[in-house]
Amino acid sequence: MEQIKKKKRNKVIRLIFGILLLTVIGAGIFLYKTAFQPFSLSETVYIHINKEKDYEEVVRQLKEKANLPSEKIFRMLAERMNYPNKVKTGRYSIEDGITMPDVIRRLRSGNQAPVNLTFNNIRTGENLAGRLSQQLMVDSLSLLQAIDNPANAEKFGFNHYTFVSMFIPNTYEVYWDMNIDNLLNRMKKEYDFFWNGERMEKARRIGLTPIQVSTLASIVEEEATYADEYPIVAGLYLNRLNRGMRLEADPTVKFAVGDFSLRRILYRHLEVESPYNTYKNDGVPPGPIRIPSIQAIDATLSPQQHNYLFMCAKDDLSGRHNFATTHAEHARNAAAYQKALNERRIY
């Protein structure tokens, strides 16, 4: 009788053990499948970890942007992989099909997805700092202070007036969390690469330094609405320089008075005291009046050969210009333009 009871107890124990074993195996399989359940995304998303390195913010972004398969399992895995203590700044991609362990390894190692940093159509240092800070972790005010810092300009071979010419508008692959020093160093490297032997030789042929080319190109770009006029305008300004004439470029007056919205340049504007006022000063201004595009720089380096010395906006207000070789011809063009402005009550 005792032996029968013992057999029954053993059978119950084996049954319980079997159930527990199946439960553990089942839980393990569930955990494994959940841990390695791939992210389901229609497109790659990106999370950004700033200098605060807030682990909770990382989890929040994964939930909101990447549809995190299981927050509980992610936290458990992250703890076991010691990620909360190794959060790194940066921009990280989360692709369809990636698993939570792979995401944690990527975040923990700092394996970032690069950013295509792009800037163009920039007039001022404030514009530049704002555009760059929108695409990077850097603060716009800190970046502006770095751009306005004479010591930084001197370090890279520029001055306060010319420093912005170091920034060549293009698309650059960088990391989102790069600091200001690394950003400036990268821009100087790209500047040196841009001013290769061919461009340096072209600058020598037209009698200008690279900085003077950028300065003249900035005026050309402000003056010409349409890019096909860039080489014509560049040739005109070079003709004036070669003849010892002042540039007398309206965009430099707008820059000097601080108002690019001016539609009509009046005599009082021409009298403003500024080294940028090319109606009162010889040669090119001390620095660019905007950050010129590559297209404008290359047009200035390869100007159209002609005899034009004067230009005036067309009276159809299309943004295109009439070009002239004599002052008399220019005066007729200017009178027609002034008449068009008067008729449209543009003052």
SSE arrangement:
Elements: H1 2-35, E1 45-49, H2 55-66, H3 71-80, E2 90-94, H4 100-109, E3 115-118, H5 125-135, H6 140-148, H7 150-155, E4 171-174, H8 180-194, H9 197-205, H10 210-223, H11 230-242, H12 250-257, H13 267-270, H14 294-301, E5 310-313, E6 321-324, H15 327-343
Antiparallel strand pairs: 1-2, 3-4, 5-6
Helix pairs in contact: 5-6, 10-11, 10-14, 11-14
Task: Give a structural overview.
It contains 15 helices and 6 strands. A hairpin with a 7-residue loop joins strand 5 (310-313) and strand 6. The chain is mostly helical and 347 residues long. The longest helix has 34 residues, at 2-35. Mean pLDDT is 91; it is low at 15-32. It starts with a helix and ends with a helix.
